[in-house]
Protein: Transmembrane protein 38B
Amino acid sequence: MDSPWDDLALAFSHTSMFPFFDFAHYLVSVMAVKSQPGAVALAWKNPISSWFTAMLHCFGGGILSCLLLAESPLKFLANSTNVLLASSIWYITFFCPHDLVSQGYSLLPVQLLASGMKEVTRTWKIVGGVTHANSYYKNGWMVMIAIGWARGAGGAIITNFERLVKGDWKPEGDEWLKMSYPSKVTLLGSIIFTFQHTQHLAISKHNLMFLYTIFIVATKITMMTTQTSVTFAPFEDTLSRMLFGWQQQFSSSEKKSEAKSPSNGTGSLASRPSDVASDNVKKKLTKKNE
Amino acid sequence: MDSPWDDLALAFSHTSMFPFFDFAHYLVSVMAVKSQPGAVALAWKNPISSWFTAMLHCFGGGILSCLLLAESPLKFLANSTNVLLASSIWYITFFCPHDLVSQGYSLLPVQLLASGMKEVTRTWKIVGGVTHANSYYKNGWMVMIAIGWARGAGGAIITNFERLVKGDWKPEGDEWLKMSYPSKVTLLGSIIFTFQHTQHLAISKHNLMFLYTIFIVATKITMMTTQTSVTFAPFEDTLSRMLFGWQQQFSSSEKKSEAKSPSNGTGSLASRPSDVASDNVKKKLTKKNE
Amino acid sequence: MDSPWDDLALAFSHTSMFPFFDFAHYLVSVMAVKSQPGAVALAWKNPISSWFTAMLHCFGGGILSCLLLAESPLKFLANSTNVLLASSIWYITFFCPHDLVSQGYSLLPVQLLASGMKEVTRTWKIVGGVTHANSYYKNGWMVMIAIGWARGAGGAIITNFERLVKGDWKPEGDEWLKMSYPSKVTLLGSIIFTFQHTQHLAISKHNLMFLYTIFIVATKITMMTTQTSVTFAPFEDTLSRMLFGWQQQFSSSEKKSEAKSPSNGTGSLASRPSDVASDNVKKKLTKKNE
Structure:
């Protein structure tokens, strides 16, 4: 199996993230901070607060996974080089005369390159999280999925929490845990890499990393160039119909039978024997929903 | 001391919580989630958020005690069997056609049995927490009490915190740390088991577990059947009079002497010499209370 | 180098904090709790909540540094003697008849002595935090600074967070991370002691402890007696001009050139070549600030 493809995937999986990919990740994160309303004015008035927010955006996933594994949330500070790199990017982005960095970043090819490279770091983070969690809990596959997910997409949770503490953000019961697209694709990746790690997927790790990275980079670039958003909607619908569908069938047949209530005998066969019971349930449900 | 009673208590203290008692605990916790207004509608719209809330209710005490001992808050996920059991109960409770589980649970004997069995798990959790804390801090009796309490009754704190983050709950300064009855009885149990563990109570552990369990199960069932609430009010009053009473005596005698201010000489003997000083204090207090 | 000064500094650096200095620290902290509006009434109504707040004020720095190093936040409870000392002070302060403690504390010399002694404990905490962090992360100088800072001044963060959870405090985006004077002087101390620890400062630790303690005690007492507030404003201005000044220069020259816009040629030489570019930047900035 020493094919050129395999060689390429293996070489790719040994790529070091450090200077270039990390740089792209920090740049995209800091530009996200800067694009928030009022961020530039805040940086002038209170640079330390702005720097702190930028660091949370750059290292949020790592901080969350440390908290979940009961490691020091300051662990990222021990890697001085990366913190200094991120700080320099924050400094240049916010305080560069004539806003040169923002002007450069506003070119589409630059954005595409940086975002694509940022997605590559996501794969590395998921794999790192899954492996790290495995060293704590042998075969604790749920923990592995959770940590891979937290490291890959946890920055959003950390930064939302920061905004909550700062009073910038009022959470709504509905929005809580409603996942964004990056969050979903990271969860999917975390599940796949966990199953690969527990030997339930007959594919080598470097091949999987290569394929997953191509998938997320391609999706990201497609989304950015076509201004559309890729969703998992069909897949989610199928899954939700599999899991909750038989119940929804009852609900919809109830509704139908309700709509047809004058001609009572036209309900579907499946719904008829349960009509009385389901009415009780419906009343209960509506009571509880009030 | 090999009496039948002792044998019974010993056998009882070796009962495994796993399938049946844990099942009852998860059932009662999930039904508590379901009885919240809007919970059923939320489960249809956002199942992951609902599942997350249910897990916090089922494993909240363990999560809090892990946080307080600097262990991974995801430790409970490593025990896949229990998580799957709790998830199944959540799934059946929320999505069972015709709401069969809720209908079954609405029968009083079922509720009594489930609640009684849930209280049994409380004893096991307190003892587990106290023993676990002792393995970290030898003779750190305050830590032992706190961890026993957190594991036995900490779910309420975790779930309140979740509601705070979700924006469902506005805390009031007054309500903070105002303890509910389960919280108080768990604190009492935690203190008792800690003193037993540090050899300050001349009673064997299995006897104490048996007696404490009988006490909390009996109280719970009495409260549920008679719809009254057992309170520690007399005990608390005594304690608070012991601790703060002599000061309250002063306050009340001050009030009396104030009421009788026209006939200035009729104050009690104890209060008279301190009248001037206490007036100063009162003014300060009222100033500070404004 | 066995001068009397050196002997004095060495003896000073071996002073034990335990009974007297810790007492002063707890007293000042509890009096700060008591001076909050409504604190006395709350203590009568809900003593446990009041006690909890007092403990957070007394041990907040230690709790925060434990959280940041992934140690148990209950570690302070293991030191029963100190907790009992702090609890006694809380009890006497809040429930002493005729408010004797508050009356005694209202005398300026008592306040000066207590506050001075409290500042001494700050030095010990910073040094302890720096040394402790070094035992986790060899040469992780950022972690050392952060932990020294957290232990010395972290109580404010913990107590603000408690007020946030209790609903007493609404944070404003602007105030977040705006540091108070104690916070700044602790950060400075933490940086100095970290550099001393990593051998970048050619001064012995006991001498540095002595000098730093004299500095913070003297500043504190000056501030209390003269009712003025010492600020680092000139130092901060210099630093901020060094870091962000060249950019501000551009901004101000832009403003000037804007003011002089009718006579367009009078701008300073430095600002002229960049006028067009800087206008673009200005527009962007104002857009983003909207």
Remarks:
- Chain A has one domain: 15-169+179-229.
